[in-house]
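ok so i was messing around last nite and threw this chain in just to see what happens. nothing serious, just curious
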Amino acid sequence: MRPCSRHKARWLQACLITGLLAAVFPDPSNAQMPASGPDVMVYKSAPGIKLTAHVFRPVESAAGRPRPAIVLLHGGGWTTGSPEWMYDDARFYTGEGLVAVAGEYRLSDQKTTTPLDAMEDVRDLIRWVRRNAEKLAIDPHRIAVYGVSAGGHLAASAAVFPHEEESKISSVPDSLILLSPAVSLVGDHWPQLLLGSRGEVKDISPVENIQGRLPPMMIVEGSADTETPLAGVRHFCDRAKLAGGACELHVYPRLGHILSRNLDPHAQEEGPFDQDPAAAMDAHKREHEFLIRLGYTQ
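result:
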């Protein structure tokens, strides 16, 4: 992961909001009718902090049965992005019958806020979803977390790192879906720059810290990804399986970050983004099958 330049921030916002990223999950013809807009709720308040959860619900009722839920975490190098970036994905998942929660987290500023704060926020968000399971009409034991790029780091971190709060309400996801996730950070100067003196990058790198069985996960990755290279992603998946977990890694040949056909490293960092439509459709199919096997959809 490299720093987001001003140009990259504009490009990411444009491509995500207009649905290019959501092309991985095209509109399924047989899905339930998705919700049109979210309920925005504050999940975390503290001095100087007010973070929101954007909750999308399927239009059709579940006949009194609690639904599975999915928490959506945007990318952006830990420094840019917002829940709105994940709205298209949220609408896809509500079409699959899940309650979708696009989450806000604190963005690193190279001063006082670091990825450690974002990691804490994501744990608090998952815990908030579980605590409010009855209100949200969800099953607290079927909560998936979906993360893109830096959001993939935050999703995986919620599963990998132990927390004192687990004795209260768990923040460990029940399953993970990761797209081009930043799960191997050692050797990447950018997260270390964001951490500053508050920590060492090896201590927040998921692959170096797997200590036990992780929830079942699915990872989508391009073989030529220069932002979150395949070698680190594969190592993470292999280590997860060695620890007794289930990890499906779907690698798309000759594609880059977020399944881009433009393989120039500068383009993978800065744009222009050129997602391969055939790979996107195939990733959707595999993701749908993964949810079926978990009992989250039909």
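not much to say yet. The chain has one domain: 6-294.
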